[in-house]
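To the team - 0O2 complex, inputs and output below.
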Amino acid sequence: MPKKEGTIRKIVDVLSSDLDESQVSLSELDKLDDLLMRYEAAIREVRTKLEILNDELSLRGYENPIVNIFSRRKKTVNILEKLKRQGDPISLESIQENLNDVAGIRVICSFIDDIYDVANMLVSQDDVTLISVKDYIQNPKPNGYRSYHMIIEVPIFFSNEKRPMRVEVQIRTVAMDFWASLEHRMKYKQDIENADEVIEELRKCADTIAATDKKMMEIRDQITKVNNEGSLAD
Ligand code: 0O2
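Output:
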């Protein structure tokens, strides 16, 4: 089966009763490809901004605040599934209006204060527009989830236009990320034995991790202070 027909088949499977195959035209799919390419361009743009900030800070003698950057463009089937789940129209306009996470970037930092530094440095760039913030570090979710989320918009220059594109940026520490990746598995497992106990254990681990993240900053500050005093005395 040619690639595009296979994609149409998947779309129709996801949308099932809402749409029949004849309603998804190849020309509409071409436009979807074009939109998805624009989200991928936005990911590259924001990734580059973050990499430049990290490189610059390390040259200025700071520890690299960013340990790792992951990015992903949401799969077509998941985009359509989410629109359907939210009860939104299935159209190109609807994707742009109703979904903020088609382009997603996850930034992993060593320390909690790096998270806020990186977020502030990014949104203070004059071509970055901050759309919304969810601070799950100050306000953790009941399950213990901690992370700093921003929806931003960046202008992307194409052959015939400049278009603002939305990107979801999640920023968290290495430890918060470790926790979230294990907890995320719960979403896809329905048959866990003693699920309530596992949820409670995870919540306790999240608290322990939060306390450890805080302690690590204090230890870093003590080490930095000793090093600075040492270098002044030399
Ligand atoms: P996936 O599979 O990671 O893509 P919205 O983004 O509008 O759908 P919401 O819930 O208002 O909805 O956004 P929010 O709270 O900013 O969360 C968006 C993403 O953050 C999620 O995307 C997850 O990646 C992550 N996240 C939020 N809460 C949790 C949590 O409790 N545990 C874990 N492990 N991750 C979380 P998706 O699309 O839900 O999931």
